Structure formats: structure tokens, C-alpha cells
Amino acid sequence: MNLKLNLVSLVPILCASRLDRLNGVSSPTATPVSKRQTTSFPVFNFTQPLDHFTDTGFTWNQRYFVNSRHYKPGGPVIVLDGGETSVTDRLPYLDTGIVDILANATNGLGVILEHRYYGAFFVTSQYRIYSKQPPTPANFITNVKFAEIPEDLTAPHTPWIYYGGSYAGARSAHMKVLYPDIVFGSIASSGVTEAAISNWGYYDIIRRAAPANCSAQFITAVKEVDNLLSNPETNSKVKSFFGMPGLTLDADLTSFFAGPLGAWQSKNWDPAVNSNSFSNNCAAMGNPSNATIATFQGFIVNNATWNLATIVNKCFGTLNDTDFQQTDLSQTGRLWQFQVCTQWGFFDVTCYPKFVDVEYSSKICKQAYPPGEFFQVPALPNIEDVNKLGGFNIAHDRLAIIDGEVDPWRFDCPHSFISPTEFREDTPLRPFKLIPNAVHHYDENGLADHTQEPPEIQAIHQQEVNFVKGWLADFKQRH
Ligand SMILES: *[C@@H]1O[C@H](CO)[C@@H](O)[C@H](O)[C@H]1NC(C)=O
Ligand SMILES: *[C@@H]1O[C@H](CO)[C@@H](O)[C@H](O)[C@H]1NC(C)=O
Ligand SMILES: *[C@@H]1O[C@H](CO)[C@@H](O)[C@H](O)[C@H]1NC(C)=O
Ligand SMILES: *[C@@H]1O[C@H](CO)[C@@H](O)[C@H](O)[C@H]1NC(C)=O
Ligand SMILES: *[C@@H]1O[C@H](CO)[C@@H](O)[C@H](O)[C@H]1NC(C)=O
Ligand SMILES: *[C@@H]1O[C@H](CO)[C@@H](O)[C@H](O)[C@H]1NC(C)=O
């Protein structure tokens, strides 16, 4: 998740710290910081108790930014859940993205709210505290007093529309289900509502959505490496060929292949925030051919394998526990990884290479979070904590589900091809929309000039405006 998504080259992905490499590529965050932002928004603090259930005597300050440019008395509050990163990464959505679009359409007040445990909170807590605590945003919604806004905008007197993308999309859906009386409406965009131990669909979606030549090249290379690893005569030679002669674990080699593939997730319809990594990697893999090359290690490979090795050779290393146990404040990859290890799962597994499996992908949980004095990470995450709130089938009046057609995280969203409710009816009260050709939460960002957005992005923004206005009309009628 700390992957810099504007990377043009693959090397920094592979060379990122261990946690970032394993976790960044497939973490559900894709938050490019728009360079287009021209306005600065005021930042505020809201005092929260450390624990909503027990009085510890401790409080902390929750950060939020406010966009009041469209606000008129009687308007709603549009709040975006900052999710698993610093809320400052979400500023573009407040300025030209979905928050501004909905606020403009409804005379609303736009807010982006930092998730407890990330951002400013993280700096003071220094990894010591994680708690899921949905009461935190609920307490904000029912008690916040906005500076320079004379009206009391707390819920339930004022309608609040909650928005989140990706992990925060799942949070948005959960907020509607857990607090139906204070969260008037929710939009879950690419909301990964179904936690899963094995996230096998992720790469399968990429395989099917990528250009056929490119997928074919990866498959050729990865199958060939699998065979070379399986053969005791070539097992160590193929590791040398990839520049990692000291590797003990086969999966330490094959897990590197996730980097070039996972770059798919950082695609965006806006060229200013899109990453070309995936297409660059495809170009580097070349076109399918039967050309073979003899390696210095004494075996013969297809040109696809040769090309993959050229990419991977740029970076190599050996996993060791000490790498994972660095706890200086630059290791922010630990934050989302902890949520993965305790509740969400989503461990990478691939059909090829066979060596990357749940056991391998979850090994990091034991390495990075050894048993502590107060807490022990479970053997596998308690995904039931998440899925009892609805999982794939999560539904509620005024809960909108928006997913991307070729988003690898669609596997964990209500539109998943393994979801029992993949083909729900799309109604104004329960919108259920799939954005064509879209990857991850494509509706979250917007351009200053909306008419320059691709037609499918303008369309989804307009649909969101329409159903939110419809919900708000219901609110007015009732109050
Ligand atoms: C918010 O709280 C933090 C400490 O948690 C403090 O450093 C900062 O100055 C406060 N900001 C405002 C605007 O009050
Ligand atoms: C705000 O909404 C109006 C229509 O209500 C529209 O004409 C205008 O372009 C919108 N502005 C922005 C910045 O979205
Ligand atoms: C192998 O692939 C590379 C990269 O696309 C290409 O430049 C080269 O010509 C290919 N070699 C053969 C023998 O096909
Ligand atoms: C790769 O795909 C393109 C477009 O589908 C096709 O025109 C081209 O012939 C393919 N190249 C090879 C080597 O198969
Ligand atoms: C490779 O050779 C096989 C068997 O001769 C052939 O069917 C296939 O089309 C060839 N592939 C390419 C990309 O030339
Ligand atoms: C393990 O990683 C740590 C920190 O990155 C490093 O200092 C140490 O030398 C490594 N140990 C081995 C055996 O590679």
C-alpha cells in the first residue's frame, strides 16, 4: 500500500522494503495524489476517546479536512473515510473527486476523515494500538461541531452520506449496516466486503483482463520456472539465473513475479495518476514466440522466461525475520499488514506458480508480529469478524455498491464471480453498479473539468449524483 503508484519502472516495486513488496502490490489502496489540486483546505481535530467501551482517561485527535465551498444551510454532509493511509492522500477527492461532486450537487459540506491508527494517529501511537472500533466515525458523525458553520450538522438531524473506496469501501458498507440511523446513505466503491484467507481470484482477474499476448508470456515464463524449480537438477540453477542464488524457499523466487502483474491495480483512467508499470512490464516481456535461449547455468529457456529474469534480476534478496521486525516510523507497511493478519486475509495465491500459497503468503504474519505481552496474532485472520456483517451479500436500503469490471479486488466485492449475489437488481434505493473497463474505485477521482472525464466516469458520477439526490429528497419528506 505504500507502493508509489506513479512508478514508471518496475524496479522500485521489487526493491521496496519486504513488507511493502509483499503487501503493497496487492493491498487495496490505490491513492494517487493528484497534482492538480489548487486549493488548500483547512484541517481540524476532533477529540476521540482512545477506547469507546472502557474509560481509559486517554483521548486522541482525529484529523479531518473540510470543503465548504458548496455548503448551504439544509445541505447534507458528504464524508469520505480515509481508509488505510494518511488522510492527506485523500485530498484530491475533496477537491475535484467524488466528495466535491456530491457536495456541489447537493449543497453539501465535504469532509475527509482520517481512519484511527493511520496518519497522524499512527505517529503518536507508534504501532502500539490497533482497534477496529467503528464507533470512532459514528462518534464523529453524532458530535462534531464544524468551525465557521453555525448550524448543528450532526446526525440524525442532518443526513450524512458516507463514501469509501476499497478497504474504506467495505467500511462504508459496514457503517450503513451497523449505524443505519446515523449514516443516512453509504457508497461502497470497490468495497472488499468479503474477507478471504486465499485471494486466488486476484491474479486470475488480471490474467483474463490483460492483453492476451502479455498474459500468455507470463504464463509461459511462470510454468517454465515452476518446472525448473520442481526438478532437483535445476532447482538451484534457476535461482542463480534469476540473480538469487542463496534462496532457500522456492516461493521467495516466484513471489517476485507478483510485482509485474500486480501493477495492473495502479492503472487509472486519469493519465495524470495512471501508472504505466503494467504496460511497461508487458512490453518488456515481449511477444509470444518459440525462440529459446541457453542460459549460463546450462539449461534452456523460452524467451519469455529470459525476459522475466531480466526484469527480476534488477533486484534480489533473501527474506529474513529481522527485515520484518523493523518498527521505526518509516515502516508504515506494518499497519495494513496487521489488519490483514488479524482480520482480512487476502493472502496471495496463484495457480502458477504453485509455490505461492496461503502458508507462504501468511508467513509474514508470524515474522512481523511475534507474540506480544498483550496480544497474539491469530494463526489465521478471523475473517468471520468481517464477513458476519454481510460479506458478498451485504445489502441495505441506501447502500450503493459500485465495483470495477476488471478490478482484481472485484474478487472480494459483491460483484465477484463467486458472489451468490453477483447479479443483484440495481435500484435507486439499493444501487448496484459495475463500471465498464474499470479497475479500482474508478469513481473516486475526478477532473476539475468533469466534461474531460471518459464517458463511463462521467456516467457513474452522474448516477451517483442522481441516487444521492433521490435519497436526500426522501430525507426531506420524512423530516
Ligand atoms: C491537532 O492535534 C495534534 C496532536 O494530536 C496537534 O499536533 C495539532 O496541532 C492539532 N491541530 C489543530 C488544528 O488543532
Ligand atoms: C456544480 O453543479 C452544477 C449543476 O448543479 C454544474 O453546472 C457545475 O458544473 C458543477 N460544478 C462542479 C465543479 O462540479
Ligand atoms: C526476446 O524478447 C525480446 C523482448 O521483446 C526481443 O527483443 C527479442 O528479439 C526476443 N528474442 C527472440 C530470439 O525472439
Ligand atoms: C499480439 O497481439 C496483437 C493484438 O492482439 C496481435 O496483432 C499480434 O499478432 C500478437 N503478437 C503475437 C506475436 O502473437
Ligand atoms: C510454437 O510452436 C508450436 C508447435 O510447433 C506452435 O503450435 C505455436 O504456434 C508456436 N508458437 C508461436 C508463438 O510461434
Ligand atoms: C537480516 O536483515 C537485517 C535487517 O534488514 C540485516 O541487518 C541482517 O544482516 C540480515 N541477516 C541476514 C542473515 O541476511
UniProtKB/TrEMBL annotation:
<comment type="similarity">
    <text>Belongs to the peptidase S28 family.</text>
</comment>
<dbReference type="GO" id="GO:0070008">
    <property type="term" value="F:serine-type exopeptidase activity"/>
</dbReference>
<keyword id="KW-0645">Protease</keyword>
<dbReference type="GO" id="GO:0006508">
    <property type="term" value="P:proteolysis"/>
</dbReference>
<keyword id="KW-0325">Glycoprotein</keyword>
<dbReference type="GO" id="GO:0008239">
    <property type="term" value="F:dipeptidyl-peptidase activity"/>
</dbReference>
<dbReference type="InterPro" id="IPR029058">
    <property type="entry name" value="AB_hydrolase_fold"/>
</dbReference>
<protein>
    <submittedName>
        <fullName>Peptidase S28</fullName>
    </submittedName>
</protein>
<dbReference type="Pfam" id="PF05577">
    <property type="entry name" value="Peptidase_S28"/>
</dbReference>
<keyword id="KW-0378">Hydrolase</keyword>
<dbReference type="InterPro" id="IPR008758">
    <property type="entry name" value="Peptidase_S28"/>
</dbReference>
<keyword id="KW-0732">Signal</keyword>
<feature type="signal peptide">
    <location>
        <begin position="1"/>
        <end position="16"/>
    </location>
</feature>
